DNA sequence: CTACGACCTGT
DNA sequence: CAGGTCGTA
């Protein structure tokens, strides 16, 4: 039976490309709620499906290693002895290698120089600078639009651990099986037509999708019936707001989900998805005060917070946001502690600030009198009513 | 535009 | 209530 590849058993099964950890941290990037499809299958080894194939990724200081499993079972292919055929195969193999590297570069958007961006963000924002020293290498994946859209329809009123299970069952139920590695079978993400099938809603409800089952099936059907198979991909080539509004015509897609899809699969680096968590960050760490003391996140609040952060961080604000979002996840809190043991001074400063912020926040509702960077800037920035 | 309840399920 | 969205006031 085929097994998950591990680097320690030899580099001959692996390809590599130069990539510093300051540019990419697999552990943070693959487990911070962007994609729900990667699992740590061995220490520091991440296995998942990308472009219809199963990959395992791992990294050392300056190198990103990747292994692509061959779903065509060529691992056991026989030597034919025909040298010309062998040569042809090797040629084809090399072509594929180039293609695979290119796919990986595309998926991680390695053309975007993250270190440079971190420097710029840190110069503009002292709070980011503090976080940035620990949470390096958090970058945006460039996901396949269909997978991204339908995964994020599952995220409404939901938390990461449950979403992960749901997406897994979605692929199991409706996606094509690819490879089996050590007891686990990997499935491709379902096609639009598989998702649009009339039986899907009931099927997914049985799998615990709740009311989202209907959203998934109806969105797929609407895309197929009204927009066409190339529509989603095509949104990569239109401006952010246009793509955002187009996505919002789909059932189950509100402002937050639309922003996630824009940012994570449609090349809209300026999109800032605002959930309650990001709202907390805006209030706690940036003294963001909205005009009306909102109880929940309205569309207007989405826009205002988006404008505020774009104004602060610039055209890659969505990327910046994901670093801070990642740094706030419970599962990564240990990283802060380990780091701050080495730097006790920073630790004390941080804790002090945080408890201060927390205190004032709990009293804030009655007296929102804080001075803020935002209200002035955002009001001038928001000339139009729409984003 | 804002407010509010309903909606699935799990902790 | 949780990393929302929809329908209705």
From TrEMBL:
Give the location in the cell. Nucleus matrix; Nucleus speckle; Nucleus, Nucleoplasm
Q: Which GO terms describe its cellular component?
A: nuclear matrix; nuclear speck
Task: List residues of the HhH-GPD domain.
Answer: 154-322
Coiled-coil spans are: none
Q: Where is this region: Disordered?
A: 338-387
Pfam families from the UniProt entry: HhH-GPD, OGG_N
Sorted alphabetically, the Gene Ontology BP terms of this entry are: base-excision repair, AP site formation; brain development; cardiac muscle cell development; heart rudiment development; negative regulation of neuron apoptotic process; nucleotide-excision repair; regulation of neuron projection development
Family to which the UniProt record says this protein belongs: Belongs to the type-1 OGG1 family.
Task: Briefly state the protein's biological role.
Answer: DNA repair enzyme that incises DNA at 8-oxoG residues. Excises 7,8-dihydro-8-oxoguanine and 2,6-diamino-4-hydroxy-5-N-methylformamidopyrimidine (FAPY) from damaged DNA. Has a beta-lyase activity that nicks DNA 3' to the lesion.
Entries under PANTHER family matching the protein: 8-OXOGUANINE DNA GLYCOSYLASE, N-GLYCOSYLASE_DNA LYASE
What is the protein name for this chain?
Answer: N-glycosylase/DNA lyase
